[in-house]
Design goal:
Blueprint: E1 6-10, H1 18-26, H2 29-32, E2 36-41, H3 43-53, E3 60-63, H4 68-72, E4 77-81, H5 83-88, H6 101-119, E5 130-133, H7 138-143, H8 152-159, E6 166-170, E7 175-178, H9 188-191, H10 194-210, E8 217-221, H11 236-250, E9 254-259, H12 261-269, E10 275-278, H13 281-291, E11 297-301, E12 306-310, H14 327-343
């Protein structure tokens, strides 16, 4: 890894707040000094965001297709600019603050570029130790013909050949792992299995260890109201969740539950648990986004490299106005750097 980790950043939807929160986060010289950053995106969008935020450009720009890209990779912040290729195709560089086919195609391509950096050999000057992704819009990806991927997590898991993966959110007050991610509520019953629940517990436990928690205390949510009331409101707790917890306990993890989801987060906030495993997207994210607004970080677990992102979306309603809060992006970058450094320390030093 050398003295500094290298972080590949995808700029996200160019019509959203991604460019703004990225510029605000990296305008901090202390943060810039901790790593090298390779940004895949649009110079036009970056300059518009810098103007909106009243921040002078501080990055090196190079045509993404140029052989100079690998030479400039030694600088702290390098923008690998896709605009020249777009201009050659006669594409207008104005990105609407709404879902569009162009923005979807570009944001998808930039994530692919960041993944490519993570897959490069370690001696390649463009090799990335971690990926940080700015927000994308799922409707825009669908308009661009990428509806197969409902989000970053699924694309990253496929491209990086992850046998299993999970989405984790880390904040000051809560840490939450999701057993299922971007699926409709009426499909959860078909997707939830003992293995799915156990994977979330196991991956979450491993992530807590890497974050410096030596003996993680893990609480698992039930799926149904009141955790099923002993089968009166559904049997998933008894059929699926309890066996997954028993497997985890048998392997040495400190896990308990299933607990009613409407009360267990209070216990976690009070310090009784280090991690909560939620069964579905909104069950876990409503408390996170309520308590950790503009601060929490999304981590994809199970990948061969570190991947983090802000916990918010493109926020088209405020994009381009310089109003976006950078806290979640700042924390996503800081956590990615910290996890890269920890990964390269001897086990005894962790």
């Amino acid at each position: 890894m050398g003295q500094k980790p290298t972080i590949a950043i995808s700029m996200g939807d160019p019509g959203g707040v991604g460019p703004e929160v990225l510029i605000r986060a990296l305008s901090d010289r202390t943060r810039r000094n901790k790593a090298r950053y390779l940004i895949h995106g649009s110079s036009h969008a970056m300059h518009n965001a810098a103007h909106a935020c009243n921040i002078e450009p501080f990055w090196w720009r190079v045509d993404a297709r140029s052989p100079l890209a690998s030479t400039l990779a030694s600088h702290d912040v390098v923008l690998l600019d896709e605009d020249p290729a777009l201009r050659e195709q006669g594409i207008e560089l104005e990105f609407p603050t709404k879902a569009s086919k162009l923005s979807g195609a570009l944001s998808f391509q930039w994530v692919q570029r960041a993944i490519d950096d993570a897959r490069r050999p370690e001696d390649d000057p463009m090799h990335a130790d971690a990926i940080v992704t700015a927000p994308i819009n799922k409707e825009a990806w669908a308009l661009a013909g990428r509806a197969k991927y409902p989000g970053h997590t699924e694309l990253l898991a496929q491209r990086l050949n992850a046998k299993r993966s999970a989405m984790m959110f880390v904040g000051d007050k809560l840490r939450v792992v999701l057993a299922t991610v971007h699926i409709p509520l009426n499909e959860i019953r078909d997707k939830l299995t003992i293995g799915v629940v156990h994977n979330a517990i196991d991956l979450g436990n491993d992530a807590c260890l890497k974050l410096g928690i030596p003996r993680p205390r893990i609480a698992v949510c039930g799926l149904n109201p009141h955790a099923g009331e002993n089968g009166l409101m559904g049997d998933e707790e008894q059929r699926l969740i309890e066996p997954a917890i028993e497997l985890a306990v048998a392997s040495g993890m400190q896990v308990s539950g299933p607990f009613p989801a409407d009360t267990i987060f209070n216990a976690a906030i009070a310090g009784k648990f280090d991690l909560v495993v939620a069964m579905y997207h909104d069950q876990g994210l409503i408390p996170v986004k309520l308590l950790e607004r503009d601060l929490a970080v999304n981590i994809t677990l199970g990948l061969p490299c570190v991947r983090t992102s802000p916990d918010h979306g493109t926020a088209f309603d405020i994009a381009g106005k310089g109003l976006a809060h950078p806290g979640s992006m700042e924390n996503a970058i800081d956590l990615a750097v910290r996890m890269c450094v920890a990964d390269h320390q001897p086990q005894a030093q962790r």
